[in-house]
Amino acid sequence: MSVSPVVSRQPLSQCSGNIIRSPSEAGLVVNRVRSQNATLKELNLTGQSSSTSSSTAVTDISKDRLYLSMGPHITPSSFASRLVSSAIHCQTAHTSAMVASKARQHMNDEESNLATTILNDTVPDATERSALSSTVHTSNRGANHFRHPSTTATANAGIIEPSQTRTFSSTSSTSVAISASGNAPMVAQQGLSVLSQVTERAREIPRDARDRAASLRERERMIVRARDSHQDKDRALTQVATNQNDASEQRDADNIRNWQRQWKRVLATSVFYFDGLEDVGKDRTKKQLLNYGAKIETFFHGGVTNVVTNRQIQANYAATDIIYQAKQRNMKIWTHEKFVRFMSHLQENPNASASNVAGTHTSTTLSRGHVVASDTSNNLCRMLREEKLTGPADSDPRARRDDIHYFKGPYIYIRDATQIYRPIMVREYSRVSEPQLGDWPQFRVTGTGKCPFVLDLQYHQNRTVKEVKPRRTGSKLKRAAAIEAEINTSKGAAKSRKLPEGEGDSHNQSANFLQEHEAPQADDDEGITEDLQQQASAAFKEPHLRKRSALTPVRMTSARANSGGPTAADIKARKQALSATGRSYHKRMSAAVGHELVATGINMSNVTSNIRSVTQSGGAANGLAAQASQVQSKEVNSLKKKVFERKRRPLPVPQVAVKKEAVAVKEVRPGYCENCKDKYDDYEEHVGSRKHRKFASNDENFAEIDDLLAQLVQPKRELHELS
Amino acid sequence: MREIEEECEQDNDEEDEGQGYDHEEERDESEEAREQQDDDLEEDEMDPQVAEELDSFAHSFKDVANRFRLVSKIGEGTFSSVYKAEDMEYDVFDNSWDLDRSPEGKRRLAALDTYPPIAKRQKMSMAPRRKKYVAIKRIYVTSSPQRILNELVLLHTLSKCDSIAPLITAFRSQDQVVAILPYYKHADYRAFYRQLPLREFKYYMKSLVTALEHVHLKGILHRDVKPTNFLYHPEMRRGVLVDFGLAERESLDPSYCTCRDYGENDHIRQFTDRQPIGGYLKNDTRPGRRANRAGTRGFRAPEVLLKCLNQTTKIDMWSAGVILLSFMSKRFPFFNSADDIDAMIEIASIFGKPKISACARLHGSIFDTNIPTVPDRGFKLEEIVEWALRGVDEDDESQAKRGSLDEEPDRSLAFDLLKKFLEVDFRKRISAKEALRHQFLEEI
After folding, report:
1. Average pLDDT over all residues of chain B
2. Which chain B residue has the Cα nearest residue A455?
3. Rg over CA atoms, chain B
4. With contacts defined as CB-CB under 8 Å, which chain B residues touch A424?
5. Could you tell me the end-to-end alpha-carbon distance of chain B, in angstroms, rounded to an integer?
6. A79: confidence class by pLDDT, cuts 50, 70, 90
7. Which residues of A, range 502-521, sit inside 8 Å of B by Cβ?
8. What does the pLDDT look like over B53-102, one tens digit per residue?
9. Where does the record place Basic and acidic residues bias (chain A) (predicted)?
10. Do strands A306-309 and B238-241 pair parallel, antiparallel, or not at all (unpaired)?
11. Strand A671-673 and strand A332-335: pairing?
12. Would you list the DSSP string of B82-128?
């Protein structure tokens, strides 16, 4: 969760003083806590209405200071998610146990007067806040165990809250979700059951209440925005209007994005002065400001464009007052609270809501309530997903987890920073003694015209005697020299390598080809499968095999180079033979690899990729030779190609004796028909099928094309031109 | 010649999942080039199977058969086959598209930057009785009408640029749509890139960038810029960009990627990342990030590899950079990129971890690798090229050295442009318009 929990350790009495905001400002009604020495029972929600601007649940248990607080500025889209990120900081396990049991008791009684209040979260002392947030973070780990379940409760509670508060005005409190943390697992257990009850209750809230709550929030959020953006007031108002007109969420997200972008542009050239906030040195908002390119001045002067003050804005100021001067110079003046809110809006990911819409979007008449509801469930899903990622947090984060594959060899691992998507790329390679033996792509010196990322054995063999002397023109060539050394080593490796001969090797080759061929089928199977892993680890244990496996791609390449590349028919023949041993890819894999534990390095490399099609142009790519096609679909033009090959150069004598099934294969072209939404094995056959012909003969399907074709008719030459 | 060697995977959300079927086509380029060079011979030598295909095509499409005589098959791709054909009614129609023959075409030709050609176009203008050829692109009937429409519309939109193959006309018969395009004589890139002096290659780049400028001006991404899609005739110093089968309009409102809201200083930004490090989840049920990655391996820009949803015309500029890099280093293909992961490692091996990390962050991802050959500090492209050229074969060596001495000033300009093409941060990457003003290309 992006919002790090913030905990105030101040007594509530102090906090409450701080959260009183001018109710008129930004059209928001801000909740405030009246109770000065709040106890668990006394804490009442006294705000006139919910506000989207804040929701900080504070729980105070008499003398034991326990607060639950949250980031500010909850908008509907992020409301649930932020609630979720709330955490409790408990000083003692005893306290949390107490909270949990009390909570339970109250919930059992169906009484929701358990302390909750919505509190604006501009914690006055940011220094303390940041200091605290780190402690919280640590204590959170302990609390994680049931933080997620609590999500449900809080999130749902969050939804019912606005309508209820509006309905009941200041009469009573709303439901509460408490998550306690601490070291005692027992506490956690108790908390869990409490929370599940809260959840149940929350679910019972009628949908229309939720809808109302949602639309209320939506509108209020818009108002906040409208208020915040003095430049785009008009546009923002339109936003409110469109919002009321039930414009699509996507539109909103775009508007927000536009709004953010415009502001970021403005900020890049802005100069800020913080009035009375000098001590707020570590304020996160300041750091964010700097990130957007804004300047922050320590002293007030004429070049300042924005002033952020911790004071209330008044009608009149003394002429010497900075605010007065700022007003005179048309500087923009922010209250700190508003500024913090603004900054968080600026950082919000509008897509969080947009993507939800995309996910649940079945009709455009989706009511806002539904959207929010799905928001909640999505966020819950997200929390669960996160738990999957981070593991149950009551365990030692350093402990090894069974559900994680830990890298043993060199790897590349590109993961999604938003944590929404699974890793974008993951691949692990066999560990090797020397980097240059690794089977990942490496830049190497090659002969002219050859790809530098494909080991060019021929080149290195030809140059074994002649040592290339590095032209050292300075320190920058040191690296080049290092690579030179690397190449020499790989040359050595290349020399010691045997060219594949005989049966066993053809098996290897088959295995390799299979890996390439079958990769597309294994497409969605994006994890290392067990057998592959076992093979991999077996290879690690066998030093001689390890070396071989590292060299396998080399071998492949060279084999291909020498044989001029296997023809499509060869590949097909091999595949057919192998497919007989088993239907599934994995079975085939093991069958193919069965004889020797080779090529595990490559197995590994097929792992998680989103390989739709893997081809390796291989060593034959000298710019003249044909690149043998290696992917299924390429068998297509095999015959035609072969004819050309025969014509233009002598057929290469393959070193590897592979049985050729000299069968006049009928040219079949497998593929996918976008019109029938069908995969087919044979193009001709599919195109003649009744389904396809039906589509083809319906002119309506091509109406747009026909319109265009009418414009594309080639004009005839004029008569005089002809003569 | 059209050929598509592409790994086309359109992971768009609108796409049906069945689209994921492996589309890939690879054809031997040199074979074709040779095939093209002697069109007299080819008719005698035609493979029976191809002949059969031509026959059945002609038979099924009378409109085409009445006007065109199919000569040979010159390309085959994922979504189409391309045939060479003689236009029997050339004289009946207005052929203002024809730069070499029509009066208007000649006027336009004279205005071209790269004009006049090195060699005289003796054959073309001197022989009035010479057969007039066109290229017929037969779009497979399994392509959706939307896809076909997209390509035709884009081609039609772009017809006005002389560096882009114009759409002469198009026909439909039931589900079969064919596009009639000019037939271009050209040389295979592999046949000339090692010999062509840098000074001459400028014309190649200029012609290519001119085409891209036009495409981008119209807000279109070609998506598949590579030598095989840029038909260049070295003697005539003329090239045309072909194959808009994967092209798309730059979205006015692209989907969200963090790179859209990325401030200049955001490289400081750190993500809260609680995903496992040092390992990955075995059963990760999260959805994969999906983006249009259509294009050709080895030519994909880093943002495409990172599945950015906000892809811009700059992806084509990267591809142009890869071509220039390939030329400078005399290595083709330069990137092997068996798949996107390999592609990423290859790029990272050159540009180093910090740059790639920053680029990944720009697109909302975290780059993490311990592959020992991925350097902590990137290499200069000069180093890379120098290094690659060290492997020049004995025969070529002296020639390459000689060439590089004369070309020194040009070379440093070329490297400067190359660096700007191969900028991993697409926002800083040079646009086609800017590239045309770059000294290396401007000087022509």
Report:
1. 83
2. B336
3. 23
4. 288-289, 306-307, 365
5. 27
6. very low
7. 520
8. 899 899 889 889 999 999 999 988 878 999 999 999 998 898 888 888 88
9. 227-236
10. unpaired
11. unpaired
12. EEEEEETTGGGB--TT-TTTSHHHHHHHHH-TTPSPSS--HHHHH-T
- Residue A354 CA, chain-centre distance (Å), reads 15
Say if strands A67-69 and A87-89 run parallel, antiparallel, or are unpaired: antiparallel
Residue B304 and residue B337: Cα distance in Å, rounded? 13
A690 lies within 8 A of chain B by CB: no
**In this structure, what DSSP letter does residue A309 have?**
E
Strands A306-309 and A67-69 come out as unpaired
| pLDDT attached to residue B214 | 95
HSE value, Cβ hemisphere, 13 Å, CA-based, for B350? 27
Q: Order of strands, edge to edge, in the sheet holding B365-369?
A: A425-428, A411-416, B365-369
C-alpha distance from A388 to closest chain B C-alpha (Å): 8
- The per-residue pLDDT for range A297-354, each reduced to its tens digit, is 888 888 888 888 888 777 777 877 888 888 888 888 888 888 888 887 887 776 554 4
- Segments of A10-150 assigned E as strands: 67-69, 87-89
What pLDDT is recorded for position B358?
A: 92
Is B287 in Cβ contact with A633 (below 8 Å)? no
Task: Identify whether the C-beta of residue A571 lies closer than 8 Å to the C-beta of residue A517.
Answer: yes
Residue type, A577: A
Question: How many secondary structure helices (H) and strands (E) does chain B include?
Answer: 17, 11
ipTM over 0.90: no
Do the Cβ atoms of B340 and A425 come within 8 Å? yes
Distance CA A704, CA B170 (A): 13
Q: CB A533: neighbour CB atoms within 10 A?
A: 18
Element (H, E) at B136: strand B133-139
Q: Give chain B positions within 8 Å (CB) of A674.
A: 16, 19, 142-144, 147
Nearest CA in chain B to A289: B265
Residue A431 has pLDDT above 60, yes or no: yes
**DSSP at B161:** -
The two structure tokens encoding residue B393: 């074969």
Lowest mean pLDDT among A612-626, B153-167, B211-225: A612-626
Residue holding tokens 């990342």? B273
Q: What is the DSSP letter of B288?
A: P
A306-309 and A332-335: which strand pairing?
Answer: parallel
List of chain B residues whose C-beta atoms are within 8 Å of the C-beta of residue A420? 286-287
Chain B residues touching residue A453 (CB < 8 angstroms): 335-337, 342, 346, 349
Query: Is B395 tagged catalytic?
Result: no
In the numeric block, which tokens belong to residue A504? 């066993």
Q: Which residue ranges form the domains of chain B, and what is each CATH number?
A: 248-442 (1.10.510.10)
Q: Which two tokens stand for residue B25?
A: 């086509």
Question: What rounded mean pLDDT belongs to chain A?
Answer: 53
Q: Cα separation of B313 and B431, whole Å? A: 8
DSSP string, A638-658: HHHHHHHHHHHSPPP--SS--
3-state secondary structure of A705: helix
CB B101 within 8 A of CB B122: no
Q: Residue A575 in 3-state DSSP?
A: helix
Exposed, middle or buried: residue A717 (CB in 10 Å: 0-12, 13-18, 19+)? Answer: middle
The DSSP code for A632 is G
Residue type (1 letter), A477: L
Q: Greatest CA span in chain A, whole angstroms?
A: 107
**Among B87, B98, B162, B224, which one carries the catalytic annotation?**
B224
**Is the alpha carbon torsion for B229, A572, B141, B65 positive or negative?**
positive
Mean pLDDT check: name the lowest of A75-89, A278-292, B101-115, B259-273. Answer: A75-89
Do residues A42 and A107 make contact, with C-beta atoms less than 8 angstroms apart?
A: no
DSSP class of A397: T
